[in-house]
UniProtKB/TrEMBL annotation:
Residue span, Glycosyl transferase family 3 N-terminal domain: 6-70
Organism (species): Brasilonema sennae CENA114
InterPro entries per the UniProt record, alphabetical: Anthranilate_Pribosyl_Tfrase, Glycosyl_Trfase_fam3, Glycosyl_Trfase_fam3_N_dom, Glycosyl_Trfase_fam3_N_dom_sf, Nuc_phospho_transferase
PANTHER family attached to this UniProt entry: ANTHRANILATE PHOSPHORIBOSYLTRANSFERASE, SLL1634 PROTEIN
SUPFAM superfamilies reported in the protein's UniProt record: Nucleoside phosphorylase/phosphoribosyltransferase catalytic domain, Nucleoside phosphorylase/phosphoribosyltransferase N-terminal domain
GO molecular function, one term: anthranilate phosphoribosyltransferase activity
Listed Pfam families: Glycos_trans_3N, Glycos_transf_3
GO cellular component terms, A-Z: cytosol
GO BP: L-tryptophan biosynthetic process
Positions of the Glycosyl transferase family domain: 97-337
UniProt KW Transmembrane helix keyword: no
Origin superkingdom: Bacteria
The protein's name in its UniProt record: Anthranilate phosphoribosyltransferase
Length: 354
């Protein structure tokens, strides 16, 4: 048993009147001790559930990110003037709505905007469809690549994927606790804004509850990160919904505001204003999803194509490739119908095999 870890556990698990938040350094220490299994299983389980009940602070999440930076992998910088997009969707899969993020990543890469994704396999508590499985079904298997090979693919195609079970195996044991506890620990929230890239990055993070968005902003401000887009997205992802107005937070400056926080501009986008039906595409079988995605890549009109255009148009505009949403949507449609995105998928697949 680790007495050091026990003291950290006592701080967060002592209740409303006698408990205390961890400092950033203490949170980093606790995270490293859990990842390295220097704490006992009883201590780790108690810490994860106590921390969830207490709710993490920006300083604690910043410390967790510090630990990931120290122990985890990073793709190295490439020669690109604009920030690389990091789509943080490692959560625990999708169960209700059809995911479109791999298509969005292909679209951006085909437009010259590099993208990095990260995540793992089917995780508790939802045990939904993970993005890595969608990529596999499209002919792109990230799971067997070394980090060095992923770097090569990233440099050649503009698309990278950090597959945590292989590239960051220290995290594997932590997620075993998620099923046993029946709840996501704050580490799962932290991973949404984790940046496994050593260069200039623009972090895209999805959220469900407004306090989470504020937690992201304040945490990244402590780390000096100012390039952030937050999306109240589908199932906690950074995918824009079609059944309601999309609530988005964007940064317009690379400087912190007078309070030392990230200055966020609120954006509300209504799908109806752009001619889209107000309905999310439900998730059927994985086979049906892949068939629908392949239809999108081949430029075929469908409900999922509307989701692809809605999201693609936004991100083409947000990355500065297009001047506004309408131009972005038109550009996305042009790229899908001209086979440019399909060609990017083929290029990606061939580079993985070479």
């Amino acid at each position: 048993m680790s007495t050091v870890f026990r003291d950290l556990l006592k701080k967060i698990a002592s209740g409303e009147h006698t408990g205390h938040n961890l400092t950033r350094a203490e949170a980093a220490t606790a995270t490293k001790m859990m990842l390295r299994k220097e704490a006992t299983p009883a201590q780790i389980g108690a810490f994860l559930i106590a921390h969830r009940i207490k709710r993490p602070t920006p300083e604690e999440i910043a410390g967790m990110l510090d630990a990931y930076d120290e122990l985890g992998p990073k793709l190295q910088p490439i020669a690109w003037e604009q920030p690389v997009i990091v789509l943080g969707i490692p959560y625990d899969g999708r169960t209700r709505t059809a995911p479109i993020s791999p298509v969005t990543a292909l679209l951006l890469a085909a437009s010259g905007q590099p993208v990095i994704m990260h995540g793992g396999d089917c995780f508790p508590t939802k045990y939904g469809v993970p993005l890595v499985e969608i990529w596999q079904r499209l002919g792109v298997d990230w799971t067997g690549l070394s980090l060095e090979k992923s770097q090569q693919v990233f440099e050649k195609t503009g698309l990278g994927f950090v597959y945590t079970p292989k590239h960051f195996p220290l995290t594997n044991s932590i997620w075993e606790y998620r099923d046993q506890l029946g709840k996501r620990p704050p580490l799962a929230t932290m991973e949404l804004i984790w940046c496994p890239y050593a260069g200039n990055a623009h972090i895209i993070a999805g959220f469900v509850h407004p306090p989470t968005e504020k937690l992201f902003q304040n945490t990244l401000a402590l780390r000096g990160v100012t390039q952030l887009t937050t999306v109240k997205g589908l199932e906690g992802s950074c995918e824009l919904p079609r059944d309601r107005t999309a609530i988005i937070g964007i940064t317009r400056t690379s400087e912190l505001d007078e309070t030392g926080n990230i200055s966020i501009e609120r954006l509300h986008l209504s799908p109806r204003d752009y001619g889209f039906t107000t309905k999310n595409e439900p998730l059927g079988t994985t086979e049906e999803l892949i068939a629908d995605i392949q239809g999108v890549l081949n430029g075929k009109p469908s409900d999922l194509m509307q989701t692809a255009l809605w999201n693609g148009g936004f991100y083409l505009w947000r990355c500065g490739i297009c001047s506004d949403m309408r131009e972005g949507i038109a550009k996305a449609e042009e790229l899908f119908t001209s086979d440019v995105v399909t060609q990017k998928l083929e290029e990606l697949s061939s580079n993985l095999l070479s």
